[in-house]
GntR family transcriptional regulator (Roseinatronobacter thiooxidans), 234 residues
Amino acid sequence: MRNSSESVADLPQGQNAYDRLLEDIRLGVLLPGARLREVELAARLGISRTPVREALRRLEADGLVEHLPRQGASLRRLGYAEVMELYEMRAVLEGTAARLAARAASDLELHELSEINAAMTASDVPTEVARLNRQFHTSLINAAKNRYLQSAIGAMARTLLILGQSTLYDPARSTSAAQEHDLLLRALHARDGERAEELMRAHIEAAHRIRLRQLRAAGLMDGIEPNGGNNVAI
């Protein structure tokens, strides 16, 4: 057990290490199955092993890291069935968020969503488009004003990070996603919760189709049966 002075000193570095490792996972720098050695990570991040260890514990609690016998910590691998289940649940949860936001969002929040989507439409930088897309979805979820829904979506979103880069790195998908956001915004401004939920579900399902297409193109889904019997790193 660490003493109190060590804990206080390492808390900021531990948070920093956690955030930086999350970003590496999001960007695909760390791939499913990657070994996560404390010494190597500490050297790369320029910090001691203690905050790295703390960050790995948090990532394990998030369900992103697993410890394997005689191998140590590694980034989890997701199987076909789990990816299908995650996107199905995302459609349900974010669809619900859109329905609630149609009722609960303030005019200011809806204006902010419109501005974010306009910036997303205007950008041709993949990293910026992906960032704005995350901001759009986060702002909409916050506008739903349901803390339990926010918590559930947050836990699911962390697991989805294992899939790596956003589907919006595909220019065609970034264009269609912004158009889907625009349709959703119209339903939100009209305070039509049922239509907003329907459009959000369709939006998530479109992202799901692109994700599966990308995984197949990368050769990561060969031989996987729809029953999820095989557990393949994707």
